[in-house]
Amino acid sequence: MGQLLIEANDDLRAPLTEIGDLVDRYRQGAESDGDLVIDRIAQESVRMRRMLDELLTLTRMDVLYPFEWQPVDMGVLADLVLRDVHVPEAHNRLAALTIEGSDAIEVVGDRIRLRLALSNLIACAVAAAEPGAAFSVRIIADDRVVRVEVTTNGPATTADRVDAGLGLAVVQSIVAEHAGAVWVDQEPGRSGTFTVELPRAVTPCGAGTPGGIRP
Question: What is the Cα–Cα distance from 87 to 11, expressed in whole angstroms?
Answer without folding.
Answer: 19
